[in-house]
Each structure stands twice: as C-alpha cells, then as structure tokens.
C-alpha cells in the first residue's frame, strides 16, 4: 500500500499496522457477532443513485449550518473515547484538525485529554458528549466545565445503560488509562468477569435507571442545546422532540452496543418521517465514503458524524491524519455532488437515491 492513503479504508489499514493489537481492536471492534458492525457499512452499499445530468455543477458549495454554526461540509467528528491510545496528543490534535477543516468536534465524555486542554487548543466549534452518572452531581460538574470552556451544545448518549459486550476487549483484557476528566471522581476497578477496567468503570458510572424524565433534569441544569444520540425508532424520535431536544443523532454507537440493531442508514428514514422537520437529524455509523455522506443527506440527515475513521487518521498520522480523513471525505462528497447534479447541499433530495426496496 502507498504511504499516502487514498481513501478512508486505507487509513484503517495504516492504523492497524501502527497500533498495538489491543488498542486497534478496541477502536475497530463491535458488539458480539459484529453483525451490525458490518451492516452499518454494507447497508450503504445497497443504496444506489439516481444521478441527474446537465445541471451546472461548475461550482459546488458543500457548506451547511448545524445549530447556527456554519461548517465547511456536513461532516462532523463523532465522540470517541481515549484518543491518546492512538496518539500522544490525543483529543487536542483532533480538535486542531477540526478547526483547520472548519467543522465541529464532539468531545467524548471518555476523552483522554481534559475539557480544558481541548478548549485551549483550538477555536473549533465544540460540543460535549455526556453520559449521565449515577452520581448526578458529577454529571452536573462536567456540564458546568463544558459550559465554562465554551462548548456550544451537549450530546446526550442514550444507548448505553450498560456497556455492550465487545468480545475483542474481553479477550485482550483491555485496560485503559485513567480518564483525566474524571480524576478523583471514580474508583477504578477491574471487572472480575472480563478483566477490563473500562467495563468496570462504565458500569459503575452509567445510570441504568436513566429515563425520559431525566431529560428535564438535564435541561434544568444547563442552557446549552441538547442533542440526543442513539435514537433508532420513530417512537423514541417523537418522544425526543416532545421533551424538547435541539436535535437527534440516529446512531447505534458504531455497533458497539446492541448487536442486530439496524444499520443506521436503514433506520434514518423512519426517524426523519416521524420528526417531520421539527428538529435537525444527524446520523453516524459506517460512513466511509463521500457517497455515503450524500446518501445520508438524501435520506434526510443534515449531517453525518464519523467515528472510527478519525481515530484511524490520528493513529496513522496524528493531527495531519485526521485532517486528511476529513478532507478526503469532503473531496469525495464534492465529486458525488457534481456527478449527481447537486451544486449545493440544498439540492440533494430523496429522489437522488434509490434504496434496495424501491422499484425502478
Ligand atoms: C465510540 N462511540 C462513542 N459514542 C459516545 O457517545 N461516546 C463515546 O465515548 C464513544 N466512544 C467510542 C469509542 C470508539 C472507539 C468508537 C469506535 C465509537 C460511538 C461514536 O460516537 C459513533 O457513534 C460511531 O463511532 C459511529 O460509527 P463509525 O463512524 O465508527 O462507523
């Protein structure tokens, strides 16, 4: 393989070569049979285009606006854990790449750089991803720190009442460094079942009793807009709108939680139809090509988030690698827009794609 990767999949291979097996498996792996992990990618492959010709595409505008923030393309950095396992600069490097690509970074609650370090490192628009702790005052403290440090929105992840069963981590006895943001707040243990401190920490931390009424509590402690991440059904999408979320992220947590969840691109339209434009809908899971970005927008997403490709870029080539991953995806997306006859993201419609169940 050439040293300079030409697509996101080649970055994955470089990351695999660069990382210790335990860390690569942690990033790459999914839950149980990894059925949904494969489906997240393959479901995109079953969607084809209905390209329109003889449209003036001499100028293409990829930019879009998410919660009033104008970004260069509808491609956002998803919250993923522990970037320092990929590169010593960790989330600081990722944030710098986000700033230079003019996009949004969602910082993971399980980050290895602190909220303050990430905030000081660049002027990227940053959202903060949140899990709700059993000890609510810890969550409240983190919300305040995110607010104080200029984060613009909260992303509440709701698909993780418990950690999914990731068998590669169990086999590798995955041990993670302590989470600096949470220093002194958690007593790090190692699970006697799995040998993994990550799982023991997560299960100590996550409040499995979290329910819709707790959204009110969260709203009562912050003025930041709240996006909800991990919605896969029309029923939950409608509830989310009713409790006043600012946006919905259709996600199955990169297939790391419930195996045999639907591929997110397959679940997207159900949510889009239920929400009827009342709040913006984003999606993540399996986006590896500019064509995937286009397909998600055609099916009603305002933007996509990318998880693993960012970590692979970081592992392979640090901040530059993350920038290249985003730029490559943008370039591919721009080409897709040109070849489908869409000079701006507003021109991308449902009629530009055909899903496998649709007749010609
Ligand atoms: C994640 N994801 C995740 N989500 C979240 O809300 N908080 C988190 O801390 C993490 N951590 C995390 C670590 C790793 C290694 C991965 C791969 C994923 C899920 C993430 O935000 C996103 O939903 C998926 O990664 C999207 O799928 P792709 O792009 O990885 O296929």
From TrEMBL:
Domain of life: Eukaryota
Record keyword Cytoplasm present: no
BP-aspect Gene Ontology terms: defense response to bacterium; hydrogen peroxide biosynthetic process
Active-site residues from the entry: 253 (proton acceptor)
GO molecular function: (S)-2-hydroxy-acid oxidase activity; FMN binding
TM ranges: none
Binding residues for glyoxylate: 131, 166, 253, 256
Main location class: other
Pfam families referenced in this protein's UniProt entry, alphabetically: FMN_dh
FMN hydroxy acid dehydrogenase domain: residues covered: 1-358
GO cellular component: peroxisome
EC assignment: 1.1.3.15
Recorded family membership: Belongs to the FMN-dependent alpha-hydroxy acid dehydrogenase family.
UniProt name for this protein: (S)-2-hydroxy-acid oxidase
Organism field: Citrus clementina
């Amino acid at each position: 393989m050439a040293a300079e990767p030409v697509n996101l999949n080649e970055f994955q291979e470089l990351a695999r070569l660069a990382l210790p097996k335990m860390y690569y498996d942690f990033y790459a792996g999914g839950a149980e049979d990894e059925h949904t992990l494969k489906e997240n990618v393959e479901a995109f492959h079953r969607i084809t285009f209905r390209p329109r010709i003889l449209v003036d595409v001499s100028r293409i505008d990829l930019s879009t606006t998410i919660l009033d923030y104008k970004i260069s393309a509808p491609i956002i950095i998803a919250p993923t854990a522990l970037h320092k396992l990929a590169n010593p600069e960790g989330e600081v490097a990722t944030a710098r790449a986000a700033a230079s690509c003019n996009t949004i970074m969602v910082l993971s609650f399980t980050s290895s750089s602190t909220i303050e370090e990430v905030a000081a490192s660049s002027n990227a628009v940053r959202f903060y991803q949140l899990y709700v702790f059993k000890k609510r005052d810890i969550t409240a403290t983190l919300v305040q720190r995110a607010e104080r440090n200029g984060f613009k929105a909260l992303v509440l992840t709701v698909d993780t009442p418990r950690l999914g069963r990731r068998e590669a981590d169990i086999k590798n006895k995955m041990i993670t460094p302590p989470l600096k943001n949470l220093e002194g707040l958690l007593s790090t243990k190692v699970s006697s079942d799995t040998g993994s401190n990550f799982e023991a920490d997560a299960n100590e931390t996550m409040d499995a009793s979290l329910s819709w009424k707790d959204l009110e509590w969260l709203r009562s402690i912050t003025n930041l807009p709240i996006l909800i991440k991990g919605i896969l059904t029309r029923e939950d999408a409608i509830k989310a709108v009713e409790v006043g979320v600012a946006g919905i992220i259709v996600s199955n947590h990169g297939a790391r939680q419930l195996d045999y969840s639907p591929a997110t691109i397959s679940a997207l339209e159900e949510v889009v139809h239920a929400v009827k434009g009342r709040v913006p809908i984003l999606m993540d899971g399996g986006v590896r090509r500019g064509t995937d970005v286009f397909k998600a927008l055609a099916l009603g997403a305002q933007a996509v988030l990318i998880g693993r490709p960012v970590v692979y870029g970081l592992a392979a080539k640090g901040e530059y690698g993350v920038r290249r991953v985003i730029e490559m995806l943008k370039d591919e997306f721009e080409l897709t827009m040109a070849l489908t006859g869409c000079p701006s993201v507003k021109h991308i419609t449902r009629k530009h794609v055909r899903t496998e169940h649709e007749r010609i």
